[in-house]
Amino acid sequence: MKDIIRCNGLTVQFKKNLFSNKKFLALDNITIQVFKNEIFGIIGPSGAGKTTLLNVLTKQIQNYSGKIEIDGNDIKNIKQDFFKKISLFAVDSGLYMDLSVYDNLLLYAKVYGKKEEDVYKLIKE
């Protein structure tokens, strides 16, 4: 069976805070394989890295180490419009309470290849 998503050694580090050089691991050497037509879920406790993994897989986070392939292509070579073909479903609202309405809309607009002007126009309407 053909794999559609493959991650090998995926690691993501973030700074502990703005004023520190100390880092923490959000994802540590993750290896996963998802096959074509397979439905899969990511479960785990708060802080386990579920959202970080989805953000890497949708190119919202691009600072990582390891290798990611989607449908046999390095994710770095995949254009943003590719994500119009897939579905993501979050258990919660998918809104980030620390972000403004504008920033939440802009975040999702980027996933779907929309321009910042589109978000501004939508809010104005």
Short description:
Helices cover 22% and strands 27% of the residues. It is of the alpha+beta class and 125 residues long.
Descriptive overview:
The chain is an alpha+beta fold and 125 residues long. Helices cover 22% and strands 27% of the residues. Strands 2-1-3-4 form a four-stranded antiparallel β-sheet, with helices on one face. A hairpin with a 7-residue loop joins β1 (3-15) and β2. α2 (101-111) packs across α3 (116-124). The protein is globular, with a radius of gyration of 16 Å. The chain starts with a strand and ends with a helix.
Order of helices and strands: EEHEEHH
Look at the structure and give the mean pLDDT.
85
Overall strand count: 4
Binned strand content: 25-35%
Structural class computed from helices and strand pairing: alpha+beta
What is the count of helical runs? 3
Shape: globular
Query: How much helix, percentage-wise, in residues?
Result: 10-25%
Q: How many angstroms does the end-to-end distance come to? A: 47 Å
C-alpha-based Rg, rounded: 16 Å
Q: Uncertain spans, ≥5 residues at pLDDT below 50?
A: none
| Strand line-up of the largest beta sheet | 2-1-3-4
Q: Main sheet?
A: 4 strands, antiparallel
